[in-house]
């Protein structure tokens, strides 16, 4: 009876919005997105360190960290990569993705954003020929939105674990082999305009510093996020941000 109640609570859960997500921007991650390591030594290292720290401090007041998510019951999945929800939404994924949905009961759909202000500052700096600061601030924004996404994922993991469910790793439209046009379906489900995120004609999100993803959820998932390393299942083997198993 308790399990049935938990399923019903998830099944009827509507769109949820979280505002003012608290994060810390790690300067080590900014270094990584700039293609360097914090402990490396070269001419100008101290200057770069100072610029990164300054840009991080400037960034904090600019952040508008928000997340939106929804749980949707799954009606059926197929080995060919089709996911159909009880509401009639249809996702077309590939065989690499669909195997994570074996035994899934629900589809988690989510979007996170830091708002438009950081990218506005980046553009202003490029216009003023402040190229180094613009590049660093752009990296700061990338780390910030990734961190907001991680916060939201961890929040949801704790939330559903208390109900006896597991989550798969996450999948983003346009990454690996999943078509970017699938982004439209996430927007149809979430209506993220409520948190200031829109979709352009090329299926790119505005603000740019936004993330969208889906995850499988169920009690008996064959592949949960706890025992699958995401980068091992991505086809972008030469991605500059790829992490090793030990990361």
**In terms of per-residue confidence, which ranges show pLDDT below 50 for 5 or more consecutive residues?**
232-236
| Overall pLDDT metric | 85
Number of helices: 7
Estimated radius of gyration: 19 Å
**End-to-end distance:** 41 Å
Number of strands: 9
Structural class: alpha+beta
Structure in words:
With about 250 residues, this protein is an alpha+beta fold. The chain contains 7 helices and 9 strands, in the order αβααβββαβααβαβββ. Strands 1, 2, 3, 4, 5, 6 and 9 form a 7-stranded antiparallel beta sheet that branches. A two-stranded antiparallel ribbon has the order 7-8. β2 and β3 (about 80-85) form a beta hairpin. α3 crosses α6. The longest helix is centred in the middle third of the chain and has 31 residues, at about 130-160. It is elongated. The chain starts with a helix and ends in a 29-residue tail after the last strand.
Highlighted features:
elongated; two-stranded antiparallel sheet; 247 residues; alpha+beta
SSE topology sketch:
Layout: H1 2-11, E1 16-19, H2 27-33, H3 45-59, E2 66-77, E3 82-85, E4 90-92, H4 95-98, E5 106-113, H5 117-127, H6 131-161, E6 166-167, H7 183-190, E7 198-199, E8 205-206, E9 210-218
Antiparallel strand pairs: 1-2, 2-3, 2-5, 3-4, 5-9, 6-9, 7-8
Helix pairs in contact: 2-6, 3-6, 5-6
């Amino acid at each position: 009876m308790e399990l049935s109640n938990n399923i019903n609570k998830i099944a009827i859960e509507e769109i949820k919005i979280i505002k003012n997500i608290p994060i810390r921007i790690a300067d080590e991650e900014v270094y990584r997105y700039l293609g360097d390591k914090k402990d490396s030594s070269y001419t100008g290292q101290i200057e770069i360190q100072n610029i990164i720290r300054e840009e991080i401090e400037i960034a904090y007041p600019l952040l508008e960290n928000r997340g939106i998510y929804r749980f949707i019951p799954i009606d059926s999945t197929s080995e060919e990569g089709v996911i159909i929800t009880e509401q009639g939404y249809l996702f077309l994924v590939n065989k690499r993705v669909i195997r994570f949905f074996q035994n899934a009961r629900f589809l988690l759909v989510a979007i996170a954003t830091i708002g438009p202000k950081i990218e506005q500052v980046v553009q202003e700096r490029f216009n003023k020929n402040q190229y180094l600061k613009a590049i660093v601030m752009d990296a700061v924004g990338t780390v910030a939105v990734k961190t907001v996404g991680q916060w939201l994922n961890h929040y949801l993991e704790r939330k559903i674990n208390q109900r006896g469910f597991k989550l798969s790793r996450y999948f983003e439209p346009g990454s690996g082999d999943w078509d970017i046009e699938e982004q439209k379906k996430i927007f149809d489900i979430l209506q993220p305009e409520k948190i200031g995120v829109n979709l352009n004609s090329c299926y790119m999100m505005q603000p740019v510093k936004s993330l969208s993803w889906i995850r499988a959820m169920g009690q008996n998932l064959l592949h949960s996020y706890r025992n699958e390393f995401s980068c091992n299942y991505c086809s972008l083997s030469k991605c500059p941000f790829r992490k090793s198993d030990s990361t």
